[in-house]
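Pipeline run #58 for the internal structure catalog. This entry was flagged by the ingest filter as a single-chain record with no existing model, so it goes straight to prediction. Upstream metadata was stripped on purpose; only the residue string is passed forward. Reviewer on rotation: M.T. Logging verbosity set to normal.
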Amino acid sequence: MASNEPDHEHREDEEAPAAEDEDTGAQVAPIVKLEEVSVSTGEENEDPILDLKAKLYRFDKDGNQWKERGAGTVKLLKHEETGKVRLVMRQSKTLKICANHLVSPTMTVQEHKGNDKSCLWHAADFADGELKDEFFCIRFASVENRKTFMEIFQEVAESQKSKEENKDATAAAGLLEKLSVEEKKTEDKAGEDKPVAAKEEAKKDTEKADTEKKDEEPGSST
């Protein structure tokens, strides 16, 4: 009869535990040593006062149409030393610069009549490595973001206008001060020249009197 009991015969090759990897203590040096490299963005000395997601377009005059520049983050950055503010926008994936220009006192931003989430402005842009007069359109995800952008943009432009006026006033004050100093120097020099002139005049009068006196003296008799 066939037995229903399990087969208790074990094979050594099946029961033998797998040998663990032995640690030889050997160290393998990497073929290429990678060093940490610091990457400069050019924004190290600037403080962000605006940071929003958006999509940027520029108007192509030749084709008479809007062309997309890229989708990413638009920032307004204020320089720590000069106080100047610039607009910078980079594409999300490539970080390529879409827009890069200063916010000047003469700039104005307007709402796009055809889209309440978009606005328009002109700028002398340097994104392509040279100054170009560009007409930009930027579209945000919400009306609130568009309003925030416009409000801060206009505030910055107004603040730059005040700085320009203060700069002109300071320059004018400096010019007036310089003129005042030069005028005072001229007056002081004129005051110094008067005694010298009087002294020279008195000397001439003395010499003239001596000459006249000699002429009046009788000649000695022989």
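catalog note: The chain is about 35% helix and 25% strand.
catalog note: Strands lie at 46-60, 65-79, 85-91, 97-102, 110-111, 118-125, 132-139.
status: ready for reviewer M.T.
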